[in-house]
Design a protein that fits this description.
This protein is mainly beta and about 170 residues long. The protein has 2 domains: about 10-105, Sandwich (Jelly Rolls); about 110-169, SH3 type barrels. The protein has no helices and 16 strands. The radius of gyration is 16 Å and the shape is globular.
Length: about 170
């Protein structure tokens, strides 16, 4: 066993290979909302650390989220639409049989996209204030009406915040 060093780590196999088993761990930052998405394979989910909220549906609906504490297992059948939320950060382990791909219900955009300025109000490097403190934008993610930013504080810790929660500094 070793501590995670990245946001996604492959523990076993090659997730993209058809018919091959895989195990991955995903670090969800505090404040992360995972927009509705599906996978072409069954997904077996175990919460390893923190609390993860998980729900099914084509639209992000916080009333449909169910709390999953460390050690809790959840199953998502292939093709089902799902979403999640991590209020304080979590590590989630996923295993299944490849190919593991993500299909975002409302597409996905980042600050790297050529049309980012038409989607995002803030840019990489902007200083912003959120309820978790002041920090610098390191990435942005958008899917449909969900627009979030990854923010690094002066202490080096990162968290996520919705665009409507942020104020320029």
């Amino acid at each position: 066993m070793r501590p995670m060093t990245g946001d996604v780590e492959i523990l076993y196999g090659e997730p993209e290979l058809p018919g091959e088993p895989f195990v991955i761990r995903i670090r969800e930052l505090a404040g992360t909302v995972v927009p509705p998405h599906s996978h072409p394979v069954d997904e077996h989910i175990t919460v390893v650390q923190g609390v993860w909220y998980f729900g099914f549906g084509e639209r992000y609906d916080p009333t449909q989220l169910r709390e999953l504490k460390p050690g809790t297992y959840a199953f998502a059948p292939k093709g089902s639409w799902m979403f999640g939320y991590s209020p304080d950060g979590a590590i989630v382990q996923v295993h299944g049989i490849g190919p593991f791909q993500i299909h975002w219900h409302d597409g996905a955009k980042t600050l790297n996209d050529s049309d980012a300025s038409s989607v995002f109000r803030f840019r990489r490097g902007d200083r912003v204030a959120s309820k978790r403190g002041i920090g610098q934008i390191v990435e942005g993610y958008a899917s449909g009406t969900l627009i979030q930013y990854e923010i690094e504080g002066s202490d080096g810790l990162r968290h996520m915040a919705h665009e409507y929660e942020l104020y320029a500094q």
